[in-house]
Give the backbone structure.
Amino acid sequence: MGELIPELAKTRKVIALELQGHGHTPYSDRKLSRVTLASDVEKVMDYLKIDSADIAGYSFGGQVAYQFAIQSPERLRKLVIISSVYKSEGWLPEINDVFKIMKPELFADSPLQVAYDAVAPDKTKWNKFLEQMIASAGEPFNMGDDNIAKITAPVLIISGDNDGMDKVELAKTYQLLGGGIAAGFKPMPKSQLAIVPNQDHVGLMTQTKTIFGYLDSFLQ
């Protein structure tokens, strides 16, 4: 997001939230719940006196964005989901298997830790933060097909073609949002799906020009 945000900010107001334990936001013993994090987003909007907004999220942030759309629909204008799912089954089985064996020591001295140490209020919370994130990732979840189908705001889903998402499940998600039809025989759906070729989960976010193009057009 570091390169994408400045591009978006050239033409619109952008508020980049660092969720619980992320970036400059302090570590908390509070469980990393998608419901509470989505509530945090709404409370920030309340504090800033923002009635409604376009919401975008990548990976775990996309899960929080889905939850926000479900529990605070009146505060949402448009929704952008980048390489993310609303249920565990949205990932390929091997991704869920990896979540089960992840350990904090696998990320020792990684670029993620370097970035964390650069801005975190308390660098000693690194392992505890990772434990929270790993526990959250490894716990099966499902926000419900019915809840996704009830999202009335336009949704843009962006995925890499090899980013670990189950593309059969992704197609089903797009259908729940009104997509996957024979446009021409029916009106074009208000939601959109973009699959970026030759991209994995991390590499997708380096494609700033491509992703910005999709977002800029969708958010008009």
Summary: The mean pLDDT is 95.
